[in-house]
Design brief:
The chain is of the alpha/beta class. The chain contains eleven helices and 15 strands. It folds into two domains: 4-246, Aldolase class I (TIM Barrel), CATH 3.20.20; 254-331. The chain has a nine-stranded mixed sheet with strand order 3-2-1-4-5-6-7-8-9. Strands 10, 11, 12, 13, 14 and 15 form a six-stranded antiparallel sheet that branches.
């Protein structure tokens, strides 16, 4: 891994803090934001919509976050919230809580100073595609030096659209610390515009774009010692899955099973709670909800098989704040 932030992300230890979805200066055809994130003044900590400062801290604790990755839109109004959250996280978790910001604007010295003073460690710039290859002598070169002067680690993070040697020049000159290349991806938010630009999905893949891992990018850029190529498979198989496992480990009940994918599995029955007490089910193996009882899935199967319960279902769900259900399997 190139940076501390990437190492933490690979472990599933990076909370993603989304601050607003407006971009004042950009309208990138490949922007992946979906309807609930694009052109909004909402904040999300992972999947949790943030209503208060406590939501941010609670989400970080839910996953035992090692650090925070801040992303979103670029309105100036978002700066106040971003610095507020940076200060909040450092106050709560200390200097070891690594933070990095992904941004599509240069920002200027005053913003770099404010971010640094608030506790930001690393800033990753994403220059507009039309500037690639022509950034020397512009604000994009200047901001790298300004960020470093203000105590931040400057870097690039770009989509793998094409190989661009100028990024390597900035690395060799010492202006940027590293460059992350994300595998070019399609999403619900950019699918139509991506197709209009002539891009198609890789055969047999849910999100990766055809040609986004071509030899030019891999040979010309990803072989550089300060370049890291982050694939869509790695994001799903390592980053996302490991984050779910961290959450599941923290919130699981005695009777929840944690799967290899980081989901939680338990049983659900609609019998009278008194039935479980009468059957002598230990208290740690079930919990009473408003209109049902949640119980160890294997115990539910056994009880239905023995005729102690008429029916139920086995539930698999994410350990996220919204508790999205992945699958329901009837037991009768």
């Amino acid at each position: 891994m190139i940076s501390k932030g990437c190492e933490q992300c690979a472990k599933g230890g990076k909370m993603v803090l989304f601050v607003y979805g407006y971009c004042d200066q950009r309208d990138c055809f490949y922007c992946p934001l979906g309807e609930n994130r694009k052109n909004v003044t909402d904040v999300y900590a992972n999947e949790r919509k943030v209503e208060s400062d406590e939501d941010v801290i609670e989400e970080a604790k839910r996953m035992s976050a090692l650090g925070t990755s801040i992303t979103g839109g670029e309105p100036q109004e978002a700066m106040a919230k971003t610095t507020r959250y940076l200060e909040l996280l450092k106050d709560e978790f200390g200097e070891d809580h690594h933070t990095h910001l992904y941004t599509g604007i240069t920002g200027g010295r005053e913003n770099m100073r404010r971010l640094s003073e608030a506790g930001l460690d690393e800033i990753r710039f994403h220059p507009p595609l039309e500037m690639w290859g022509d950034m020397h002598g512009t604000e994009w070169e200047d901001i790298l030096h300004i960020a470093r002067e203000e105590g931040l680690t400057p870097a690039f993070e770009i989509p793998g659209i094409r190989a661009e040697p100028e990024f390597l020049e900035f690395l060799d000159e010492g202006a940027a610390e590293f460059c992350n290349i994300n595998e070019f991806e399609m999403s619900d938010g950019n699918y139509r515009r991506m197709q209009e630009e002539g891009f198609e999905l890789q055969e047999g893949h849910m999100s990766a774009v055809e040609g986004s891992k071509d030899d030019a990018i891999l040979e010309e850029m990803a072989s550089h010692e300060k370049v890291y190529f982050c694939t869509s498979v790695f994001k799903d198989a390592a980053q996302h899955r490991n984050r779910l496992k961290r959450m599941a480990k923290n919130i699981r009940r005695e009777f929840d099973e944690v799967t290899d994918d980081g989901t939680l599995v338990y049983g659900k029955a609609f019998a009278d709670p008194a039935r479980f007490e009468a059957l002598g089910v230990p208290e740690e193996f079930y919990t009473v909800k408003s209109n049902h009882v949640e119980v160890a899935w294997w115990l539910l199967e056994e009880m239905v098989e023995d005729g102690d319960l008429a029916e139920g279902e086995i539930v698999e769900q994410y350990p996220t704040a919204d508790g999205t259900v992945v699958e329901r399997t009837p037991v009768a």
